[in-house]
Design goal:
Length: 524
């Protein structure tokens, strides 16, 4: 389309950096991706920031190449761009903009002491992955770098800063750095005062607001792409500077946008390497729970989040093993065909899953009180080991911790959820993931046509809102009346049999957690 305004969303996920380009009809025109992996270094899960840039460049070049192939012209101008990343974590820089310690990701469970103290201090749950927990734990550890801190941000905030020079963060992502006052759409000032009183004895040369990004709601001014930033994305020099940038968000916020779950009483579940459900509340919870995170939508509405560090990693590892066997036999099968076949097999399982059990914990899981993980597969002498039972067990295992967290919201806070909108790789095989999740959570699960686009598409929509919103038009209205007005969702209801099957599984799973704890204690 001549003079069509183009918008790009780029998300730094746990295993992929993905870029999506959309036009004015909100549908993807081109995309690109780069695979990367975290590594355990000196006791911390981390990523190399040099690879963040090379991965961004790779993803963009793939997108630009696809655009040229489909449109017949070079991609030189993008009107608006948005960056999102895996949530929270800790990136600390000194006054020379040098990284003080390697990036500490959301996956780390090394801040238990700090998170516990902060939660009790604020009467508000502070998860271990939050930036404030990492910062305070570094202080408790007497880490040398603390007094050199000039700026602390998240991965999305870091990328945005280097591309624009702006030290800002979208409110949804900022709510994973420090608790947010939803009325002010800013960090909770009362809690900041309490924190600074707590750390007074440390005599730090900084105040919290001085080293944290400025908080911006969706649609707010977050800067433009600089000449240096354009070259960081596209070293070939074809991409022009001047793109309007949306406030950087986390993958939780982009998931809400991608499923149109930003209004009160809506909910979504993002299911990939990790899994989290997000329920937008009418009011704050009456109490606080270590299993429930209180974050916000990209416009600052209070949102209850059940976050599990582990989800499909174990399933992916077993699928890779099967792929090696197939290759060793001289056969070929695509990843899509492999996963589709394995997931569909899960529907053929015995009601009791053959009495097989597994624990999918590759890393710690705060909801169940584990600082480390040991992936386990367990069978009893009378178990029935078949491929359907094996796959059902691993999918149920992935869903189990999410179920334990969701039960707190439903049973203790009487939060009602009419349906969950699902997105992420778990739903790529039609129907299977939806049905098993609906049975596990006893909530209808819906998937939109766009569900496979996920976070980067959600970030592209936030960037689109940045330049297309009308005066007074809220993000909620923009998504409902424009983006999703013609989209239909495929819904799956839980079944009585499925609910009963998962109920039996979760009882065995809770007992098996004692085995998992023993494995963590005894196998190093």
């Amino acid at each position: 389309m001549l003079n069509e305004k183009l918008t790009m969303g780029i998300e730094f996920g746990s295993t992929r950096i993905k870029a999506v380009l959309i036009g004015e009809d909100y549908t993807p025109i081109a995309s690109g991706s780069h695979e990367w992996e975290n590594r355990l270094e000196d006791g911390y899960w981390t990523y190399d920031l040099d690879e963040a840039w090379s991965g961004l460049q790779d993803a963009f070049q793939q997108l630009a190449s696809e655009y040229k192939n489909t449109r017949g012209e070079e991609l030189t101008k993008v009107d608006s761009i948005g960056f999102s990343g895996m949530m929270h974590g800790y990136l600390a820089f000194d006054a020379n903009e040098e990284l003080l310690v390697p990036f500490r990701t959301w996956r780390n469970t090394t801040t238990e002491e700090a998170a516990k103290e902060m939660s009790e201090l604020f009467s508000f749950n502070i998860p271990q992955r939050w930036s404030i927990a990492h910062l305070y734990q570094a202080m408790l550890n007497n880490e040398e770098h603390v007094n050199k801190i000039n700026y602390v941000t998240t991965l999305a905030g870091y990328i945005h800063w280097k591309l624009t020079g702006e030290k800002v963060l979208g409110v949804g992502e900022a709510s994973g750095m420090f608790p947010i006052d939803s009325d002010a759409v800013d960090y909770n000032q009362s809690m900041i005062d309490t924190f600074e009183g707590k750390i007074e004895a440390y005599n730090t040369p900084w105040k919290l607001r001085e080293i944290f990004p400025k908080v911006i709601s969706a649609g707010g001014d977050a800067g433009i792409l600089s000449e240096e930033g354009a070259h960081l994305i596209d070293p070939t020099g074809k991409l022009e500077a001047g793109s309007v940038l949306a406030p950087p968000e986390g993958d939780a916020g982009t998931g809400m946008v991608a499923t149109n779950s930003v209004a009160e009483k809506t909910g979504n579940v993002s299911a990939g390497t990790s899994v989290f459900s997000m329920i937008v509340l009418e009011e704050e919870l009456k109490d606080y729970y270590t299993e429930i995170d209180m974050v916000t939508t990209p416009t600052g509405k209070p949102t209850a989040m059940v976050h599990c560090n582990n989800f499909t990693t174990d399933i992916n590892a077993w699928a890779k093993l099967f792929a090696e066997l197939i290759e060793s036999l001289g056969l070929e099968v695509s990843n899509d065909q492999l996963f589709s076949t394995l997931f569909k097999k899960a529907l053929e399982a015995d009601d009791d899953g053959g009495k097989l059990m597994s624990c999918n914990y590759y890393s710690g899981e705060p909801i169940t009180g584990l600082e480390e993980g040991r992936p386990l597969f367990v069978q009893m002498p009378d178990s029935v080991l078949s491929l359907p039972n094996f796959m059902r067990t691993h999918i149920y295992s992935a869903l189990a911790t999410l179920k334990l967290g969701m039960d707190i919201l439903v049973e203790k806070e009487n939060v009602s959820v009419d349906q969950l909108l699902g997105h992420g790789g778990f739903f790529k095989t039609e129907f299977v993931g939806q049905q098993l999740m609906a049975d596990a959570l006893t909530i209808p699960v819906s998937v939109m046509e766009s569900a496979g686009e996920g976070g980067p598409w959600g970030m592209a929509l936030l960037a689109s809102y940045q330049i297309h919103k009308e005066d007074g038009e809220t993000l909620e209205d923009y998504l409902t009346n424009k983006v999703f007005s013609s989209q239909e969702a495929s819904s799956v209801n839980p079944t009585e049999k499925g609910i009963e099957n998962f109920k039996q599984f979760i009882e065995r799973y809770v007992m098996m957690l004692e085995v998992e704890k023993s494995a963590v204690e005894n196998i190093n």
